[in-house]
Amino acid sequence: MTSETFRLTEGVEADPILVEIVEGYLASVEMEVETAIGRTSRSPMIRDAHDYRAGIHDRNLRKLTGRSYSALVHPVARDYPPATMKPGDVFFHNDVYLSEGGIGHLPDLCVTAPVFARGEAGVETVVAFVQAFGHHDDIGGSVPGSMPSRATSVFEEGLMVPPIKLWDEGVPNEAALKIMTRNSRMPDSLAADLDAECAACLMGARRLAELFERYGKPAVEACFDAILDKTTDTFRREVLSQIPAGTYVWEDYAEHDGVDEPKLHTQRITLTKTDDAGGKLTVDFTGTGPQAKGPINHAGDYADGVFLKKWLAPILRNLAGSPERMAELDVNEGIVPLIEMRFPPPGTLLTPVFPAPTNARTFVILRMLGVLAGVVAKAVDGRMPADQETIRYTGVYGEDTDGRPYLMREVLGGGSGGRYYADGEDTIHVVPDSRNLPSEFSESRFPFVVERLGLAIDSGGAGRFRGGLGYEKHIRMLRDAHFMSIADRSILSCWGIRGGKAGRPFEVTIDPGGPRERGVDALADAEPVFAGEVIRIRTTGGGGWGDPLERPYTDVLRDVRWRKVSVEGAETDYGVVVRGSADEPVVDEAASDALRSAVRERRTGDEPFFDRGPGYARLSGGQPAADVDWL
């Protein structure tokens, strides 16, 4: 089945009141499925960090819910025609290259349950699908956590499972479960998580079957069509209409792949907006760099890029008329007809050839969010947020006090970019509802103490609207262990826009201020850390928006009082001279006026529209900005 959006009904008019009921029902079922997973799973990554998603899809594989992204049903329907499915079946897959672009790396395990309803002849047929996928602790491979930073082949990254029937009419496939758990370093957690996800999806399937039983298949499917039509119409009218017709080009970069020395791994978008056919967008990735040797590739060129369309579309919501309206706009399959994607030939970062490694594909798929934001910003005079890098994987592993192996892995967030109307948000995560691990839980389960968890001062990019701050976390080890990290933006910063400055990059230091102080690469599998040493993690700050010299003194003073900006940072980044004590700082307005005037006089007037920070020059051969950084 292709990724085209097929209507379920023709000539059936949806009752507008029932549309509202069905839309709310779908959202409720999706939330109930996610809640069930969270309450019954076992691994910290799923239960505590909430790094998983649920989604509801119709029988034509279109995603109906829009609160969050999810994987695709396409590979399941490809290998198991819906006509052969039975109530109680649950399908499983995690194979990146056989997922039609819905799975990015092997730790993301996906389960899918079909929904059945009786037709006019009393025969049960598939009418929808409930799906869940999440990032699990370990699915094998060469390092704990299944994310080897120096992998050169997907075979090093863990167990690949193409779509299989994991439950057959309510009966689990014990042989398949034995194989998967045998290949995991955390077999008990894996088994419990899969059981939780399968049971939750089957529960969701029962809930949806009740909806069809109550209102009938024709009425419910007419509502499905209406829900998606509303999204299409809303985005065309309120969002795409804000982009002037024309062609715009921008690019950004990943900085390393774990194998080669750091360099600029280019990710480029040429965006074309037309006035015909309702103002469709064409997103052309031509110019994206070659497939990397290391694991930063993302297999996106499947099913006409339908997963990428839904992944990238939330960025476009920033063009809505107000922040409140942005929050109201869901992204479901209704956005798919509005975007055409054009991919370069096989062999690029976005079109890797099997068996290219992909476990750190966040370096590409997250960067593409920023590239789309940047290229749209060029079209709308910067009315888009500055850059963010709000996901990276850090953790430690070793043996606990009882000699048992443990793995603590955390997905720490960072600061989001400043916006044309407000500062960026502090310590957010790109995965909705995800969170850092509670310190109390971590200390009770793992042999370390969390000595500090707070905001990284001065990490947000300076601007009229400041970038959000990243985390600063200090972990003191009680036993020898190994530290691991899968992170980008340790050289290149989150870019600022329209005069805003770049945020501070990611940084890890072990034993800061101690006799063995040392920095750690952002891509690390097994960095030794000894009992008594502290691991200091500082995550990225978002880029700033607008000229920092236009930030009101009162806002800078508030940031100093709240320990978001240091006294030194206020002067260096904002031209604001702060006097007084730490508890009672005051602005020296005369000195600040003079300083800001001197800074303005030094400007040439030819500064680029984007500020990438000092790290770009290191990787570009000394160039302070890219050719595409000017309007």
UniProtKB/TrEMBL annotation:
<protein>
    <submittedName>
        <fullName>Hydantoinase B/oxoprolinase family protein</fullName>
    </submittedName>
</protein>
<dbReference type="InterPro" id="IPR003692">
    <property type="entry name" value="Hydantoinase_B"/>
</dbReference>
<dbReference type="GO" id="GO:0005829">
    <property type="term" value="C:cytosol"/>
</dbReference>
<dbReference type="GO" id="GO:0006749">
    <property type="term" value="P:glutathione metabolic process"/>
</dbReference>
<feature type="region of interest" description="Disordered">
    <location>
        <begin position="605"/>
        <end position="631"/>
    </location>
</feature>
<feature type="domain" description="Hydantoinase B/oxoprolinase">
    <location>
        <begin position="15"/>
        <end position="548"/>
    </location>
</feature>
<dbReference type="InterPro" id="IPR045079">
    <property type="entry name" value="Oxoprolinase-like"/>
</dbReference>
<dbReference type="GO" id="GO:0017168">
    <property type="term" value="F:5-oxoprolinase (ATP-hydrolyzing) activity"/>
</dbReference>
<dbReference type="Pfam" id="PF02538">
    <property type="entry name" value="Hydantoinase_B"/>
</dbReference>
